[in-house]
Write a structure and sequence with these properties.
α4 (129-145) links the parallel β5 (113-116) and β6. This protein has helices spanning 19-33, 72-87, 103-108, 129-145, 154-164, 205-215, 232-243, 256-265, 280-287, 298-304, 315-326, 329-346, 349-363, 371-375, and strands at residues 4-8, 37-42, 59-62, 91-95, 113-116, 148-151, 169-170, 192-196, 220-224, 247-251, 268-271, 292-295, 308-311. It is of the alpha/beta class. It contains 14 helices and 13 strands. 43% of the residues lie in helices and 15% in strands. The longest helix is centred in the C-terminal third of the chain and has 18 residues, at 329-346. The chain is globular.
């Protein structure tokens, strides 16, 4: 008899918004293929219903919510949890600790929950004081009520052990290793600087845009990303692209082949994310063989090890490090090769999906969860 799982906390299946959505695009069909009945909760208008890769065996359920920056996750999480509580699946996979407020509802219905805790949301600069308080409260409730936690990095696992006294299972994100792709029109392989990031301060976007003014005097600079809501950083990127013929601001790129090509042929990919665990964009960049210059954080060092150059988050340091990378072809080749090798050893989708499936299976089978095996799970092994 097949088991059932409800997936709550993403924009739906299939969606291309962020890391959670990328994970669910891979995990939902994998679980169906493994014999699970899979229901993914989503938001109206957020899914790509005509996606040629859509698996029709995955059930997609839309619920109502408030489309605002501060209330969307909470409101959609609540309506999705209400629906799941009525349906009573064998297990719920929940993304984001903001949904911790709804765990008691699911628990009251006897539904075990596996929660991907994401990064340390209450430390993100994009959130105001009240939002940070909401995330912190959701984290406390997650620690109290979740059946199991998934941490996408060892450092995040340590934070949850220290701050909340809860163990977590390490399962990172994966990446696709593409075939050799043609260079995007107007660019030359290894002769442009690339950044791919959501436009928020903790991704070092303001500092990179400032550095790009100097870098674009010598090299093409390609900027992928936006805030999603408009604002100062979008205006700054637009102004930079308007003033410099060497700067291209592409906004959000949903075409995987185009994005993979940009990573594959970059001379230097700047990764400025600072408040997270294993970043999905970074893992995918590594799978594409991108030479990486990364902001120096414990999370980025965990993922990249010796494969990257690490830099402090200020415009002069970024300019100097990226400039050196662009003039050193040997470094480019070495960083690209080491990034790709590390992605294949530790960050494959097959390993990630297999680890999730095993954890969900064990959570739904009382008495079979072996804590030592789960805590030390490595997705690439």
């Amino acid at each position: 008899m097949s088991k059932s799982v409800a997936i709550i906390g993403t924009r739906g299946y299939p969606s291309y918004y962020g890391g959670f959505e990328t994970l669910i695009r891979r995990l939902a069909p994998y679980l169906v293929e493994s014999g699970w009945d899979v229901t993914v909760y989503g938001r109206p208008g957020a899914v790509k219903a005509d996606d040629r890769l859509l698996d029709p065996r995955v059930e997609s359920v839309m619920t109502k919510g408030l489309e605002t920056k501060s209330l969307s996750t909470l409101s959609y999480g609540f309506t999705s949890s209400l629906s799941a509580a009525r349906r009573k699946p064998d297990v719920a996979l929940i993304m984001n600790v903001a949904n911790g407020y709804w765990l008691p509802l699911l628990r009251s219905r006897g539904i075990p929950t596996v929660v991907n805790v994401d990064g340390i949301e209450w430390e993100r600069a994009k959130w105001g004081t009240n939002a940070k308080r909401v995330f912190r409260g959701g984290a406390r409730l997650t620690a109290k009520y979740a059946s199991e936690l998934v941490c996408d990095s060892h450092e995040i696992r340590r934070r949850w052990q220290r701050d909340f006294g809860r163990e977590g299972v390490f399962i990172p994100y994966g990446g696709d290793a593409p075939d050799q792709l043609p260079v995007v029109d107007g660019l030359k392989s290894r002769e442009y600087v690339l950044v791919v990031a959501r436009f928020v301060p903790e991704n070092t976007v303001p500092e990179f845009l400032e550095a790009a003014k100097e870098l674009s005097k010598k090299w093409n600079v390609v900027i992928v990303g936006s805030t999603g809501y408009g604002g100062e950083l979008d205006l700054a990127a637009a102004k930079l692209a308007e003033e410099s013929p060497r700067v291209r601001w592409l906004g959000h790129v949903s075409d995987d082949n185009k994005l993979f090509s940009l990573w594959q042929h970059a001379g230097a990919y700047f990764h400025g994310h600072s408040v997270g665990g294993t970043n999905p964009a970074l893992v995918q960049a590594m799978a594409c063989g991108a030479p990486v210059v990364a902001r120096d954080t414990v999370y980025n060092r965990e993922v990249l090890s010796e494969a990257a150059t690490f830099v402090q988050p200020d415009p002069p340091s970024i300019t100097a490090a990226v400039g050196r990378a662009m003039t050193d072809r040997m470094w480019q080749d070495s960083s690209a090769a080491l990034s790709f090798q590390r992605s294949q050893e530790l960050y494959t989708w097959e390993g990630v999906c297999s680890s999730y499936e095993s954890l969900l299976d064990e959570v739904t089978t009382p008495g079979t969860v072996h804590r030592d095996k789960l805590v030390n799970r490595v997705a690439g092994s």
